[in-house]
Amino acid sequence: MTDTPTQLFIGGAWVDASDGATMPVDDPATGEIIAHVADAGAKDAQRAEEAAVQAQEEWARTAPRVRSEILRRAYEIIVERTDELAHLMTAEMGKPLAEARGEVAYAAEFFRWFSEEAVRIEGGHGVLPDGRNRMLLSRRPVGPCLLITPWNFPLAMGTRKIGPAIAAGCTMILKPAPQTPLSSLALAAILKEAGLPDGVLNVVTTSRAGEVCEPLLRGGRIRKLSFTGSTNVGRLLLAQSAEAVVRTSMELGGNAPFVVFEDADLDKAVDGAMVAKMRNMGEACTAANRFFVHSSVAEEFGRRLAERMGALVVGPGTRDGVDVGPLIDRVGRAKVEELVADAVERGARVLVGGRTPEGPGCFYPPTVLTDVASDSRLMDTEIFGPVAAILTFDDEDEVIRRANDTPWGLVGYVFTEGLDRALRVSERLEVGMVGVNTGLVSNPAAPFGGVKQSGLGREGGRVGLDEFLEYQYLAVPVR
């Protein structure tokens, strides 16, 4: 980690914060400080904005093939440095190395996908219905963008936003989460090495998010905001974006239902539950939050899930054989502790886990709760931890109503061997994505996003590029 940059990346140069401020980066497995990085303020945000604005016009004129090849080179460098990036991510975020390597591959794939999409930006041509004018449609970059990424997938959330912005011809300011800035700084170094021109990407690490972001959004020169994070912060950013009518993409919170019908293959259902719940220690917006299991199979499903969860090894992510690393910080762990305690007070039974271990680090054991009351706090709160809460149901209409009884609508999971039921239930769920007999929906080639208070717009897939492009229509008289 000694070679990982710790300064701001502005205009293609590594620079200190204008006031010299720094902030610590902690290892959540030990609580020890592993690095100090520059802590940007408002002046640094202005410098980054100026660099992005100055680079925009020339970058927009760059040939699509050039942008494509930069992304392809960056993809190849990321793949070559998988172990280095995985160790860095584990150190600052805590996930086991096996998961970190998986995220590196996932992150790299966004660059490969958008390197291929960069050369497929098309417009249109035709004669208008009245016959008087020809219509020429062209696609243009929306302009300088502010990209705000979370701590739970620090590399992949960066590439998922940077990839389409580069492909579209947009310049950027990236503000990573203060808990995990090192992965973003390493990514900036890789893109510079891949040939990205100065000023196209600027990385501003900060603990002073309001001081940095609000002036950018209200100032009028940033034309696009792409944010991944909590719904509460998303609402604030939307309000700040309204003044200058900034285009927004918002990937916000989730409260995913995981529905197991009586005809489900329980082996598939438990395998899917392990992925949907335990990916990234449960610290994912796609994590299954509410397990609705048909009463006829609920006891057997709970027993199998508890057995699998109880067999997971908890410990530092760098240790061999570890399945579950620490949560991001003590605040995040305290939230999980409080949610479990509240559920137990309301009558839930703990099948496995439920007790915070002693010692250093922010560890919490994989936990399965059954007989969970519907008014428990964890039913309407994004848990963001390794806790599976099981409720029972008897009727299809009933479970759909309960699954939809939430302000969020990011993803849902449906397990049934009946194709008609799988399609029928999926179509009635108020979510942007559905996993049918699978616990994993995320893929760079698929549109990721939700409905209701889970966000606006989509990331990934072909539509992910559209978020960074505008249409221009030319009317040309027919002679």
UniProtKB/TrEMBL annotation:
* Taxonomic lineage: Bacteria, Bacillati, Actinomycetota, Actinomycetes, Kitasatosporales
Q: Which UniProt keywords apply?
A: Oxidoreductase
Q: What is this protein called?
A: NAD-dependent succinate-semialdehyde dehydrogenase
Quote the PANTHER family the UniProt record gives: SUCCINATE-SEMIALDEHYDE DEHYDROGENASE, MITOCHONDRIAL
- Catalytic residues, per the record, are E251
Protein family: Belongs to the aldehyde dehydrogenase family.
Which InterPro entries does UniProt cross-reference here? Answer: Ald_DH/histidinol_DH (IPR016161), Ald_DH_C (IPR016163), Ald_DH_CS_GLU (IPR029510), Ald_DH_N (IPR016162), Aldehyde_DH_dom (IPR015590), Aldehyde_DH_Superfamily (IPR050740)
The protein's organism comes out as: Streptomyces akebiae
Presence of keyword GTP-binding? no
User: What are the Aldehyde dehydrogenase domain coordinates in residue numbering?
Assistant: 14-472
